[in-house]
Amino acid sequence: MSAPKKIVIASRESRLALWQSEHVRSALKGLYPECDVQILGMTTKGDQILDVSLSKIGGKGLFVKELEAALADGRADIAVHSAKDVPMDLPAGFMLAAFGTREDPRDCLISNTYDSLAALPAGSVVGTSSLRREAQLRERYPQLKVAPLRGNLDTRLGKLDRGEYQAIILAAAGMKRLGMAGRIRALLSVEDSLPAPGQGALAIECREGREDIVRWLAPLHDAATAACVRAERALSRALSGSCQLPLAAHATCEGATLSLHSLVAQPDGQRVIRAAQSGTREAPEALGDALAAKLRSMGAGEIIAALS
Asked: Is the Cβ–Cβ distance between 220 and 99 less than 8 Å?
């Protein structure tokens, strides 16, 4: 296999997105020292529209469409995404070529005053951009007020520091990757706040048919992470998972066995349906589809129908 001469990475321009792309760039330079690896920074619609919740303006695809356009017209060879931001159905002609080793998949509590959600006084304002987090917060802590929170990591932390919120909930992976783990007051267990499909994992996208890129990326691909994320994404896809549906899915891999936990909820947290199932690592999509069917049989279909 011939080494690549040049690879261009399409990336959002937020600090976290650029960290992720630089992480991949560094790994590629380590593998192919002679290769010219460049980052093409881009602003997406999801980065521009900050005053409306994602569920109301088109969801996850807003963070990837511009990057996919750069792949399609040849300005870039690969795009680096947070796997949780990638729509469950990719447009025709695109594929996920590799998944990086997963960081901490959990949610975390950031607060300048309180060490836990339980310690927050009634009426405290908790910020989150996610209906998944909101539904679980409302179920467990109905005395708290949940308010929308958009913007990149620094913007969200700034709003907390100005006193607009008593606490905010973020993905632990982003905080750790940016060297800000010291601001985490508590890591939320997956039982307390089940993560989003793909949370904590990096996904690298390219055009279909680019077998050269798949080969070049192979050393960066983590098979266990890929199996977990593929199971989570299959479940979400089978349930028409979108930003309008509070849905969580988290898989773990032990040897040849995949265990998948999931929930579907009403946004107000009044009804939350949870289920889990195990399967083989060799067939992650089948596990995701099976657990989705189980959730539907338990009443998730009624929640989905009411929200669509």
From this structure: no
